[in-house]
Amino acid sequence: MSCRELTYSGPGDWQAIGRWLDKRKDPDTKVDGIVRDILKNVRTNGDKALVEYTRKFDCDSLDESMIRVPGKAIRASLEHIPAEDRDILEEAIGNIRAFHVNQKEKSWWTTAPDGTILGQMVRPVDRVGLYVPGGRGGETPLISSLIMNAVPAQVAGVEKIAVTSPPRKDGTLNPHILATAALLGLDEIFLAGSAWAIGALAYGTATINPCDVLAGPGNIFVATAKSQLIGSVGIDMVAGPSEIAILADESANPKWLAADMLSQAEHDPLAAALLITPSKELAKAVHDELGPQTAALPRSEIAGASLRDWGAIITVPDLETGADVINHIAPEHLELSIADPWAMLGTIRHAGAIFMGHNSPEPVGDYFAGPNHVLPTLRTVRFSSALSVQNFCKKSSVIAASPSYVTKHGDKIARLARLEGLEAHARSVECRNK
Predict the structure, then answer these.
(1) CATH number attached to the domain at 4-27+241-382
(2) Could you list the active site residues?
(3) Which of 48, 86, 192, 375 is the most interior residue, by most CB within 10 Å?
(4) Would the pTM of this model clear 0.85, i.e. be above it?
């Protein structure tokens, strides 16, 4: 399997590598107008628009009465999946919930001797909308996405969560999606996909109530719809194609490294899989492994295109230089497949999730360990973070000034107001001291 072989000796080599990787960011601007029209149609025509688009693209027999999945069907789905799958889902949900509980923030208060109280009040948003892609006509449901988005919202204290997912051709959802929803205690499940589902969650229809925050992955139409709604609702992030960078030394197993690169390459032809190593022997061994492992995959065509266009094995003089490359790349997923990953952790400034050592492949975090797998991509990890409980909360400042506070500081506040030319602001304070 062909894969770029690059060399990085220092910061001067980054420019060429960065220009290559930045090509993954090219926006598909022709989608903007299409999505804008879809959102306008949904906002104007509600359920009628949802039925129109769903009949055209997903299920030609859908009518308005079918948009909401009955609660009975959600509960019954637990009987339609293997008991082993149910046990695994319950354990994964428990792990992910336990991790996110640690992210909860508390409201706090400070008091001054004069009786003034200042503080911050943390509250969950009222209502969240989650999008879950159906996956290959509903046959490869993204159940992990539902868990990763629902659990932090629930831990935040959100009481109302709506879920949309495109129906299969027969007007049903994959029972694993419904069963996961049942295990999460979710009962608002709606049959809608793509940009029209995002519009319905944002604006509301006769069947779907509007939401305050939207979250969940999707194709270019979903991502574009979310980006066009920024300012009207909160969103998790506008994520790009998946990516993994692996910093490895001679202690790593080349078979494992090739498998780890392919775990992201199989997502999408635009996914990036990068190995950084000071070992030329390891680099060659991994390169030799990629071909046969790719050929053996059901999604070999996708993985092969990803490796060909966006895969690379980058040799560096030493691990410290490798860490420099990582910080330039700012990857969504980073594996430290080295003998002493903890010694290198402090050198990593930019990575969405960091997988430590040889026994922490990226899928451990994707599905089961607990941390969220919704992560920034395309170098946005330089200024943003994984989806968390905080995405579903808002914070209010609380100011309770005492009379003596206004007496002592009123003139100063008025002076600052007048410097900005805001006389009414100044008088608002001064009138309390007369």
Answers:
(1) 3.40.50.1980
(2) 332-333
(3) 192
(4) yes
